[in-house]
Amino acid sequence: MLQDMLRYISDHWRGKLALSTAFWINTLGLALAVSALAAAPVVLAPTEDPNPSRIWLLLGAFMPVAPVLLAVSVWQIVGLWRSAERYRAGASRQLWRRALPFVCVASALAVIGGLLDGLFWSGRILLSQALIATIDQAY
């Protein structure tokens, strides 16, 4: 099972998967999951009677996840681009051959924008909550 999963990851990276799979599942579907993961700290943060140590712990646990999410985003974009290039080489319709790079670039911008937006707001909200709770506890 692990070998199948690694082969799937490798096939996407190399552009060997069907363009529809690369786009709908690995780019769009996974982008939604990555955005939800990036926003998770905000959802998990306590809103009533915030404990500063819990918020700092949550922030500390979240920060190492950010590079992993960035790596997943790079994997998504590279695999999509390579699948699109492979598809373009065999496409018979000129419209698809010309439109595909724009679709890939728009998808890449959406994936990166969603990730950065989620990371920025999650980190900013958690940090402000932690600082406020720490100040409130001190006084």
Q: What would your notes on this structure say?
A:
This protein is mainly α and 139 residues long. It has one domain. The chain has 5 helices and no strands. Helix 1 (2-14) packs across helix 4. The longest helix has 45 residues, at 94-138.
Provide a quick synopsis of the model.
The chain has five helices and no strands.
Helix/strand layout:
Layout: H1 2-14, H2 19-44, H3 52-62, H4 65-90, H5 94-138
Helix pairs in contact: 1-4, 2-4, 2-5, 3-5, 4-5
Which key features would you list for this structure?
mainly alpha, 5 helices, 139 residues, single chain
Q: So how many helices?
A: 5
List low-pLDDT spans: none
Q: Rough shape?
A: elongated
State the separation between the terminal residues, measured CA to CA. Answer: 54 Å
Q: What fraction of residues sit in β-strands?
A: under 5%
Which whole number gives the mean pLDDT?
79
Kindly provide the radius of gyration, computed on alpha-carbon positions and rounded to a whole number of angstroms.
19 Å
Question: How many extended strands?
Answer: 0
Main structural class: mainly alpha
Number of separate domains: 1
Main sheet: strands, sense, barrel: none
Written as H for each helix and E for each strand, in order along the chain, the element string is HHHHH
